[in-house]
Amino acid sequence: MELRQLEALIGIADHHSFSNAADVLGTVQSNISSRISKLELELGSPLVDRATGSLTESGEIVVQRARRIFAEIRGIGADVSELTSEVRGEVHLGMIGTAGRWMVPLLLELQRERFPNIALKISEGTNSSIEPRVVSGQLDLAVLAWPISAPELTETELFTEDLILIVPKEHPLTHEPLPLPFATVAAQELLLPMIGTPIRQEIDEAATEAGVTLHPFVEMDGLRTIASLTFDGYGLAILPATMLAKYPRVNFAGLPIAGLARRRAVLATRRFGFPSAPVRAVQGLLLQIMVNDDIPDGVYLPEVPEKHPKV
């Protein structure tokens, strides 16, 4: 088994055809076909469906492990460079959008100051889209909403944040005593996250505890889109307090809700394997951010922040 064979298979997985993989890898299609055929012969199983260009079940398994292999190879070079010079290399970081809007600027500031030779590649998404990419090795680590579902991942708590009802400032609810009873909130026309997402679990648990049933106007798997629709006047939304940034605050208010727990955010990494020097450096920076004075209102540190290592 050769690395270039695994590289060819990853190329097909990412770009969906032999010809596209050849273009990306700077070779010809016949070379890609030959590498895949030799790999299939060695493993005794077809890895690619020639008719569709999609991977077989065996191909998917091989690609998952191949991504981890290449992640370890990148780590070897990065760890050796750490011994001889500045920490350098690429770090692929996943992040839920609500955390990214305030964490990324703080991360970039620290990274430029302390590790200028690290190249950050940041992918934004939801837990459901990011978790599989951390497991497969496409991403090195990720800031996610708790709970995470993949058993291959381990977590370190970063912060908790208030969940609030975002309403226009002229809305009648702004004159009600706070926190709002959950029954009052449930009676509104709400834009909510999809059932099964971490934030929706928090909302549904509070609704069950309050003995009310939610009837959302629309459900979406994307908090940024929900916030945009709310700010455009399509309805009210229960969102993390950090979604109500400086400019929306001019026209909108965030109202606390009785019985609604704070949302927890964690730093997720693969349970097995040793992260490279650049990944360890970025991991330390993310933990260091949590003792920064620039944390937005509505975000809270874990109970024992002194256990977080400083870089």
What would you say this structure looks like, in words?
With 311 residues, the chain is of the alpha/beta class. The chain folds into three domains: 3-67, Arc Repressor Mutant, subunit A; 86-160 and 264-307, D-Maltodextrin-Binding Protein, domain 2, CATH 3.40.190; 163-261, D-Maltodextrin-Binding Protein, domain 2 (3-Layer(aba) Sandwich), CATH 3.40.190.290. Helix content is 42%, strand content 20%. It contains ten helices and eleven strands. It has helices at 3-15, 18-25, 29-43, 57-84, 97-114, 127-136, 182-186, 198-210, 223-231, 277-289, and strands at residues 89-96, 118-125, 141-145, 153-161, 163-168, 190-193, 218-220, 236-240, 252-256, 263-270, 299-300. The protein has a six-stranded mixed sheet, sandwiched between helices. A five-stranded mixed sheet has the order 7-6-8-5-9, sandwiched between helices. Strand 1, helix 5 (97-114) and strand 2 form a beta-alpha-beta unit. The radius of gyration is 23 Å and the shape is elongated. The two termini are 39 Å apart.
Quick summary of this structure?
The protein is of the alpha/beta class. The chain is 42% helix and 20% strand. The protein has helices at 3-15, 18-25, 29-43, 57-84, 97-114, 127-136, 182-186, 198-210, 223-231, 277-289; strands at residues 89-96, 118-125, 141-145, 153-161, 163-168, 190-193, 218-220, 236-240, 252-256, 263-270, 299-300.
